[in-house]
Amino acid sequence: MSRHPGGASFLQLGAGRDCTALFESYHALAPGGVPNAILAKYRVDRPAVVAKLTQYKWAANDPFYTDLKHSVRAYLQANKISYKASATRWFWFFLAMVVQLIPLYWYIQGYWSSLIILPLFLWVFSVNYFHDASHFALSHRPWVNALVMYLFPYFESPTTWLHQHVVGHHAYTNSDDLDPDVMDRFKSRKKVWRYSPFFWPLFTFMGCFVFDAIFFFVTLKYKKKVPMAHWVRTTMRYTAHVLGRIVLFYCMFCLPYKWWPFWKAVAFSVIPVGLYGTCFGLFTQLSHMTPETYGNRKANETSWAAHQVLTTQNIATGSFLSFVLSGALNLQIEHHLFPTMCSEHFPRIVPIVKDCCRRHNIPYQESPNYWVGFCRHRELLQICTEGGFWGDEGAL
Ligand SMILES: [Zn+2]
Description:
This protein has 396 residues and is mostly helical.
């Protein structure tokens, strides 16, 4: 396992579960045929014990995915572009890493303006770097990606993020039963979900403490569906995870009460966390949750790549501001097709992906801006809470 270029822990993350989607998408830009040849070398012929987590019937030759991978690889080779982070990207990383200390200093000094500036800055920094690192997209060196993820775990604990997002969400996008971002929420038809944007401020708190700290380690499965990888079950991993939660909780919800009077402390512990969670909700929830993208959740079982395009929308594709503020999550289609590509390269491959979709008659879905994206999201919430997708069957 130590010879795996992506590191041993990623192999361990896939152990015991169907990881076809992970294998295919994480080697999509590798030299043609090489990963498959290596895989064949290590083939073990014995009945597999696989966690029940599968959805696709993989076609032996998927014309759309083959064409897409070939076109993007050819573009990268012709232009001599490495699909990991460039020197310029690293320059911005180190600059932002140092500059984030300024709003942090203002926060510690008790400046009221820091309540807005600090969470916005931390959001932009983490969505641009933590997210790429969690997909092993920053560097070919596994330890570099791991270091960035563990140094700046503002989204969620790296342990649960890998299960929830990298395995659950990316491999099984929009599946009612398998994608932790969706499951049960809409199918339940509970009226409360119509108002889910009002819960966005709670996202960080729920992600960092509730799902992380309690349920995942009680059930050994993220949201009872994505089984915990074996590598988590070591004393060191448990300790790192629990200590991380305690330190984060102490900094966010205890220190302000030591430093300032009660009401000021309430504002300083609630507003930044809520604003960060709202950014998370705005830039993540609209990409897959529209009537069209959710309606396509069962549309294509034989092409994983087509499924990714059909269940995803881009928002404000050409906007530089949206690109920076969302950490390229506005180009969600390209991210889902090529998760190991550093997000800085997505704008260059948009025309290639669009052309390929056109050639294979797969609709490339876009909203012109975040307001339109938000309205489509609200339409979905309304349809779902009225049971529009299921008729009389399927209510939980
Ligand atoms: Zn992602």
